[in-house]
Structures are given as C-alpha cells and as structure tokens.
Design a protein that fits this description.
single chain, alpha+beta, 8-stranded antiparallel sheet, 3-stranded antiparallel sheet, 11 strands, about 20% strand
Length: about 325
C-alpha cells in the first residue's frame, strides 16, 4: 500500500532549503468528522506511548481509582512518558506501596531517565522506576493485584490484563470488531497495537472530548508536568492552554485534544524529528486558534517555538518554515 505523506515543514540555511519534513495531520471535529492532510490510505501505525491513556482508562471498568484511592497525580504519572525526576519517582513509589509491591516487580527495562540532569545525578545506577514507561507498568501491576491476576506475566499478550486493554483500544478507536489489530512490542516490552491515524484521533476524542472518562481527563488537565516533565512536548503544549491535552509517542506521533472545542489533532512525522514535530503542531494549533502566542511565557515560547537556525556561536543563518499548503489546509478547517 502506497503511503503519501505531505511536506509539512522546511528548514532553510542562507535562503536555501536544507531539510524537509514530511508526514500527516489528522483533524477530528466536534462531530467526529475526519479531515486529513496527506494520503494515509488507512494505513495502521503503532500507537507507541500515545496508547498510555487508553491503557490507563481500563481503571474505569474495574473501579481501580476507588479501590486504591488513587489521586489525580497518581493517575497522571501512570499515563506519562515521564522524565524520571524526583516528583515522578516519589509518586510511583507511593503507588507501589499502596498495592504492596516494589520496583522489583516492574517488568519494564532498566534504562536511563529522559532528564539529563537526573542521568548525571544517578551516574548510571538506575532502577526500573527511571524508565519513562514505569507509570504504565505500575498501573498494570495495580490492576493485576486488584483482580488477582498473575503479576509475573502481566505483559504477556495472552494475559487477561492485555486482553482487556486490547478490547478497550478497539472500543475507543472504533475499529472494526471483526478486524484483528496489528501487534508488536513497545520499547518497554509491553504489547502495542496499531490503528489508522483516523481511528487514533477518534480514540482521543472518545477519551478526552466526552464525559465518559473523567478521571483520565482531569488527571491530564490538572497535572501537565507529571505527564512529561522538563522540556517534554506534551507538557509544554498543555502549559500553553488550560484546555489542551497532549500525549507524545515515539515514531513521530503526537496527539492533542482541545477539551473546549472538543476537537483532536494527530500528527505523524515520518523521520520522527521531535523539533520539527513541535513546530508543526504549535503552528497548526495557532492557526486553529487553540493557543495564543501572546499569552505564552517567554521561556516556554523560546523552547517550543524557536524557528531560528544558528551557528554554534549564535549567528542566525536560517529558519524553520511551515509549508504554505499545510497552513492553508489548517485555515480551511474553520
């Protein structure tokens, strides 16, 4: 099947195009009508970490929040791709204490935290808690402990937990009930499924633009820093607007829900360039009126929307420019 990504962004140097960034943008409006920039042909892409709020949403079916008296902050960290800062680790330790387990029960790999200062602080002596997916794994353990399911095999595809998550993803993303979704392993070894970008946008709509999952919704809205951390794109986007919910995923994915207009944007950048992804997303959101640049703190704007290309000594030599057709597409959504 032929994929037809669109040119979304260019980086220039001395007025010559040096880099180009291709991908897709999907827009889901308040009536769940879908518009796409780029031909997706309904090709399935793995959700990667954009699946975390879907995975966490099973707590509604099992009343897990009430069972463990989980707070907004605890639910937020369980949905996070966190940077491994003390604020994240302390909350996760608290959850593990509640469920009577420890970090030794987590099946996510021991890797360095995303936050570089924390990397230097621990000097390579990391634990599973430093893995950016440890929140997801902690919540998986909590549900298994609550339901009496085996905690040693909770990431096995045939485990009852993963079967429940699979059903939930199909429900939220409104996929064909008779169709089996493509399956792989995420970086943290947990199962990850793929849907079309259009279906992914419906999943975020059903989760965040309805009143069906208030606990997950409020956890995001009330705790943007816990969802990511220092210099993470989802945290930065949520700090730009109190009505925005964002979740970044590997492979160039970014999903943003506007809980005021009940609309969703899904971005997929082919080469997974994180800077390009952020610039594209923020530019498109500005054009849709989702964020007001004048109201953003200067430091946040400099970090997230810096379009200037410089030399190593700071001379300006180029810029990042949103493709005119992408801008026109966004303007025509209104």
């Amino acid at each position: 099947m032929e994929l037809k990504p669109k040119l979304l962004l260019e980086q220039t140097r001395n007025n010559l195009v040096e880099l180009q960034f291709y991908g897709w943008i999907v827009f889901c409006d308040s009536r769940k009508n879908i518009k796409t920039l780029g031909g997706t042909n309904s090709y399935p892409f793995f959700h990667r970490s954009c699946a975390k709020p879907f995975q966490a949403s099973i707590i509604k079916d099992f009343n897990t929040k009430e069972y463990y008296s989980l707070t907004d902050k605890e639910i937020a960290v369980c949905c996070a791709s966190h940077t491994g800062e003390p604020v994240h680790l302390e909350i996760l330790k608290g959850i593990l204490d509640k469920i009577g387990l420890s970090e030794k029960d987590l099946l996510c790999p021991v890797i360095e935290p995303l936050n570089k200062q924390e990397q230097r602080h621990y000097e390579g002596k990391y634990s599973p808690l430093h893995n950016n997916c440890s929140g997801k794994h902690t919540l998986m353990l909590a549900v298994c402990r609550q339901m009496g399911w085996d905690i040693k095999t909770y990431i096995d595809i045939n485990h009852p937990l993963q079967k429940e998550i699979y059903k939930q993803i199909k429900l939220l993303c409104e996929t064909d009930s008779a169709k089996e979704l493509p399956l792989s392993l995420d970086g943290c070894r947990a199962p990850v499924w793929a849907t079309s970008l259009e279906e992914l946008s419906k999943g975020f709509y059903n989760l965040f633009c309805t009143d069906d999952y208030p606990d997950i919704k409020q956890a995001f809205l009330n705790n943007p820093y816990l969802i990511g951390g220092s210099e993470r794109p989802d945290t930065q986007i949520m700090q730009m607007g109190q009505n925005l919910i964002a979740k970044a995923g590997a492979g160039g994915l970014l999903c943003v829900a506007n809980t005021d207009t009940n609309e969703v944007l899904v971005f997929k950048i082919i080469d997974a360039n994180m800077k390009a992804r952020s610039i594209i997303a923020i530019d498109i959101m500005q054009q849709l009126g989702w964020i007001n640049t004048n109201s953003i703190a200067k430091k946040l704007l400099e970090n997230s929307l810096n379009k200037i290309v410089t030399t190593e000594t700071g001379e300006n030599v180029g810029e990042y420019v949103l493709n005119a057709k992408a801008g026109l597409w966004a303007n025509n959504l209104r």
